[in-house]
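Q: I'm writing up a methods section and want to include an example of the input and output format. Could you take the sequence below and give the corresponding predicted structure tokens, formatted cleanly so I can copy it straight into the document?
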Amino acid sequence: MMVVVFRTTFFKNLWADGEGLAFVHGDHSKPTAYFWIHATLALTSLILGVLVGLIGVRALRAARAAVEVPEQRVPAGADRP
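A: Here is the clean output for your methods example:
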């Protein structure tokens, strides 16, 4: 969740760039290479962060499910079916 907040804020700040690095003379119809590189980095980071978060949630759920359902053990010396 944090990666979504940080990356969307980063992208908003990149769009509102007042130093002239992201757009030619502040014209939003003419983005520079700086804009495209940083937008790509932000988007890649956002996608990877969400994917890692989803993998972590799935692993946590699987770990909790394994703890909740104890494995049934057959006593030593008992006949197995």
